[in-house]
Every structure is written in C-alpha cells, then in structure tokens.
C-alpha cells in the first residue's frame, strides 16, 4: 500500500507509541517481579497495541482505496484537511459528509486538470479553508475542545491505572474496586491528561494541516512529555527532600486511594465521559444568524 | 476589502444560480466564474453551500456520479426563495444608492467636487 508522507508519519507515530507502551509495561513488570496477574496484563497490553496498529492500517487502506483515482497533491490536501477536522468535536456524520464532498470536489477539479491550489488556495489558505468548513458547520475552533479531551483521557487513565494495580498482583486486592492508586500517580496522570494531552493535541492539529516534516511531529511528542515529566519528578524529589515534615504533604506523598471504589462511581465516570462529548459540541457552537 | 464585499454578495448569487435549476457545487462555481466572479474557487463556494443548507435556504439530494462517491445536488427551499427575494430587493435598492454616490452624489455649493 503506497502511502504519502503524512500517512507514513502517522503510521510510524502509532507504531512508536504502541512499542513505547509495550516497553513501559515490560519495564514495570520486570521491576515489580513477575507475578500471576502481570503476565495477563502484559498480554492485554500487547493485544491492544497490535489491534491499534491493525485498525490504523485497515483505516488507512480503506482511505487509500477511496482516493485511488486522485492525483497525489489532492490526496495530500485531503489528508491534511480531514486530519485537522478529525481532531475537532464536529459530529462523526458531518466529518464523513465533508470527506465525501471533498472527494467529489477534488475529483471534478482534477478531471478538469486544475491544480489543488486553484481549488482551495495556497499553503496558508488550506488552514483558512478547513476553519471555514468548521465555522460553516457552526463550530468554533478553540482550546476548550482540547482541554475537554484531556478530561476524557483522565477518566480513561483512572480506570486503566486502577486496573493495572489490580492485575499486577491479584492476591493483594479482592476485586478491581478495592485496588488503590497512589496520590502521586493520580497527580502525574492528571498532569499528562490535563496539560500534556491538550498541548500535544493542539500542536499536532496545527502541524498536520501545515504539511510539516516528521521532525516537527516528533519533537513536541518528545520535548513536551519529557520536559513536563522531568519537572514533575523534580518536584516530587524536592517534596521528598524538604517537605515531608508537613503532615498533609506526607499523607499525600505516601497515601493511596481506590479512585473507582464501586460500580456506581464507574457508571458516573462513564456518564461524565459521554457528557463531555455533548459539552464539547455545545461550547464550540457558533449560533447561526439569518 | 473586496473579499469582505464578496462574502455577502456570493450567498445571494449562489441562491439565484440554484433557483434556476438543481445543480451541484462544482457547476455552481463554474457558473459564478463565467458570470464574472473570476477569483472565486470551489474552496470559496463549498463553505457557503454548507451555511446555506444549515440555514434551510437550500436542500440536497444525493445522486450517483460516474467516479467517486454520490454527488450532492442542491435545490432551493421555500425559505430560500423568500430570502432570495429579500436579497434581490435590498440589492436593487442599495445598488441604486451606491451608484448615485459613485456618479457624483450630493453637491454642496462652493465646495470642490472629486
């Protein structure tokens, strides 16, 4: 399957992230010692990573089939616009509709031997064109969307971390709902979800539509998470060295809690997760004027 | 400045093109270009068509196309027809007034004319 540069970068990123996830899981298991539940956890993680790669390849293959009759420049323009729009809270049906309309528009234009610049303008105009499509659908393009996405990620992380702690050693906890998570771990994942994810999402969205090189994708994926993680670790070490004499700091540093203590909280988190999908549409909506 | 002026006018012109016959986006763009809007392209027309459809001025049906996905054909709704009539009336009035000023307009005694 022939892929353009954008697709290759996207596929490499997904494979790298999957390999990183598997690598981190192996490291955690080796550090913690192989216990009964950890092999199960490793198998689950590897299976999820493989499924993610297969789904990405399949989605890409199906997209390449839809675009096979278009010249390369139009395929690249389509990719850039759809990846940009894909990272917004526009309804899935509307995104599909935009995709079909673009293919039809590009097909007719390419048959008339028009260049893609004649259809949607030059490099700067592509972003304006994508923003116009979003605005026409009544969607604003603002950072709130990325923040709300971060909250959704945080909910997923809470669920997964507790599951990891439970499966790591099933002899310690009677059930999933009794497994505890360190406060410091919760804080770390809150930082990841509410700071790193929105920043990366925002940056990636702008970088995708500007047809940047692979380095431009990889640098923020390395610099932002490593920088913020280093800051977090440094702060924790400082707290450990200087502030543990303060009662509540010590309680925070060494304490743990079951973030999902019963099925009701799990259901509530699920409702909040789904509610955010609708909230994202509401806060991003531009009212129509007639 | 031209882009700002065009934005409001294009909606009315697109509605007029659609009023004449059921048509699709690419054809609408070609009609606008051949009518004198030489700087308009498909990228300009497409978001306007989405807006007009969201406002209920036009509606679309999908029909088979020889290559690629089904093509959207637009037709005017009753709401769109009413809006088009209002646009046409406002344009006639406004263009008469603008022409008046552009061709000399109001003169005051003892003041230079441009």
Question: What key phrases describe this protein's structure?
Answer:
heterodimer; A: 290 residues; mainly alpha; two-stranded antiparallel sheet; elongated; B: 114 residues; 4 helices; 2 strands; 61% helix; 11% strand
What does this structure look like?
The complex is a heterodimer of chains A (290) and B (114). Helices cover 77% and strands 1% of the residues of chain A. Chain A has helices at 5-32, 36-66, 72-86, 92-111, 116-120, 123-136, 143-168, 183-209, 214-242, 247-254, 263-283; strands spanning 181-182, 256-257. In chain A, α3 packs antiparallel against α4, α3 (72-86) crosses α6 (123-136) and α7 (143-168) packs antiparallel against α11 (263-283). The mean pLDDT of chain A is 81. Chain B is mainly alpha-helical. In chain B, α1 (2-20) crosses α4 (78-102) and α2 (25-35) packs across α3 (42-55). The two termini of chain B are 22 Å apart. The chains are: A mainly alpha (290), B mainly alpha (114). Chain A binds chain B through residues 66, 69, 100-101, 103-105, 107-109, 111, 118-121, 125, 129, 132-133, 135-138, 288, 290, and chain B through 24-26, 41-43, 46-48, 50-51, 54-55, 65, 67-72, 83.
User: What is the count of helical runs of chain A?
Assistant: 11
> What is the distance, rounded to the nearest whole angstrom, between the alpha carbons of the first and last residues of chain A?
47 Å
| Main beta sheet of chain B | 2 strands, antiparallel
In total, the number of strands of chain A is 2
Computed Rg of chain A: 22 Å
Order of helices and strands of chain B: HHHEEH
In a few lines, what is going on in this structure?
The complex is a heterodimer of chains A (290) and B (114). Chain A is mostly helical and 290 residues long. Helix content of chain A is 77%, strand content 1%.
Write the layout of secondary structure elements.
The complex is a heterodimer of chains A (290) and B (114).
Chain A: H1 5-32, H2 36-66, H3 72-86, H4 92-111, H5 116-120, H6 123-136, H7 143-168, E1 181-182, H8 183-209, H9 214-242, H10 247-254, E2 256-257, H11 263-283
Antiparallel strand pairs in A: 1-2
Helix pairs in contact in A: 1-2, 2-7, 3-4, 3-6, 3-8, 7-8, 7-11, 8-9
Chain B: H1 2-20, H2 25-35, H3 42-55, E1 58-63, E2 71-76, H4 78-102
Antiparallel strand pairs in B: 1-2
Helix pairs in contact in B: 1-3, 1-4, 2-3
